[in-house]
Amino acid sequence: MRVLSIDLDYIMSPSIEIYQSLYFDHNPSTRWRTLFEQSPFNESHFDMDIMEWMYCFNAFVKAIKTAKSVSFGYSHDAILYELDTYEEPIDLINIDHHDDFFGGDFLNAFENMEEALENEFIELNLHRRVNEGNWVGYLASKDMIKSYTWVANRNSSNQKWAHVIERFIPHLIQFNQFEPVAAELGEDFDHVFLCLSPQYVPRKYWHYFSMLISIYEEFTGESANVITKSFEAEYRYEEPNDEILYQCTTGRG
Fold this sequence. Notes:
Order of helices and strands: EHHHEHEHHEHEEHEHH
Number of helices: 10
Radius of gyration: 18 Å
Largest sheet: 7 strands, parallel
Shape: globular
Strand content: 5-15%
Number of domains: 1
Number of strands: 7
């Protein structure tokens, strides 16, 4: 199965490394209000890159011409509502500022970066601790990744752990849009997913997401499948819920 995923935080390389860890909140409106009220920044400080936007635009428009299915989401882990059902291994291409194999969730709990990342992968295996930052790792933990191509920004700080990703995905391919191979993503995708990531894309750029939804609907004559749910939130309590119901005397266990 060939899958193309595009995260619009890719267009934010001029500024995303400045703000991405500041006042993070799972509610994007809260996140941006708090950041602008509590920091010296305002929205005018956070620039996007027009070349990166055009790269995403062109890749998306080309891919939807022949894609078997297309969906849109706000949180990147929403792609799993489609991919988690696949029975065949996936050749995944991800245009993204982040690798989304590791979210770095345990970096503050371990002195050693590699131990922290390995622990994150263990938690994916044991407890499905998946989120928008490690959904690719989740698929790898289920042996669903045949190959992974990450089109990364040259200044992405996540590149520091690419060598750890290679331990779990031997066929990791990483490049940026300015390398010749970036123009050869191919066509005939089984699925195309477009993600806004509103926690990482300032509100003044959200209309780019709207534009691509409109283009898809105009081109196909179909209503866009926009996923507002989060795979992480839906499955966070799955394990304790199964345990609780098993303990109940109502016959649901």
